[in-house]
Amino acid sequence: MKLAILYRGPLSSCNYGCTYCPFAKHQExxxxxxxxxxxxxxxxxxxxxxxxxxxxxFFTPWGEALIRRRYQRAIVELANLPHVxxxxxxxxxxxxxxxxxxxxKQRLGLWATxxxxxxxxxxxxxxxxxxxxxGIPISVGVVGIHEHQAEIAALxxxxxxQIYLWVNAYKREVGYYSPEEIAQLTxxxxxxxxxxxxxxxxxxxxxxxxNVISVDxxxxxxxxxxxxxxxxxxYNADWQAALQPRVxxxxxCGCHIGYIHMPHLGLxxxxxxxxxxxxxxxxxxxxx
Length: 288
Ligand code: SF4
Ligand code: SF4
Description:
Keywords: Iron, Iron-sulfur, Metal-binding, S-adenosyl-L-methionine. The protein is an alpha/beta fold. Helix content is about 30%, strand content about 25%.
């Protein structure tokens, strides 16, 4: 049985200070770091025992996890397990990447976000090129606020053509984008209109809760990051009973890591094996 787990432990800190983020420059105490490490180690040990699964793990931390050696070690350990197909992580790409040399690289995935106010474009691009040269699958993206438009265009220009550059739509303000901006951003990311939509989801089939689950540091299972109701706990003996087909109870779903799991949108065909780290398996020119 295939299962993808979106893991989000207690970590809630970041080395960057983006104005649009609650974790900006937040620091944790030594006790909080120890708590996060214990939860992570418990999760990795549990994952190692699940040899009945074809497992994928996607780290979606509150903050930046890849700068922490414990997350680098967890990725290496997971990626080397025979029953683990993919280990991906959302990151600002400020961390070292040498740990990846201890992994089968095609099992890795980097969802790398560029934050123009926090690091020079050249430095971010250098890290992208390092990932590419090391053979680590990577998607690159930016939050599509007005202030980032020039940087988004420059990043597209500088990245190799085959690297997918996604733009996360700013959806907190209705009518935020002009038609011209939508056209410009769609020329860069052909899937931008899909991200710029809060997809009606109530009553619609969604694979989360069956083939994809969200797990926190205590092992609590939720079907996704956007439905708060727990459906089980991976540390209970009968945890697999939680895995059932369900429809969505929320009115809409507006985040890539959620709506990609609604089959009627057809995005499983677009992203295939690159679903978690957001790498389309269809050439970008064909998407456009
Ligand atoms: S890099 Fe990400 S986690 Fe860190 S402050 Fe910026 S948006 Fe938040
Ligand atoms: S459609 Fe979105 S909010 Fe609803 S269950 Fe799926 S991932 Fe969660």
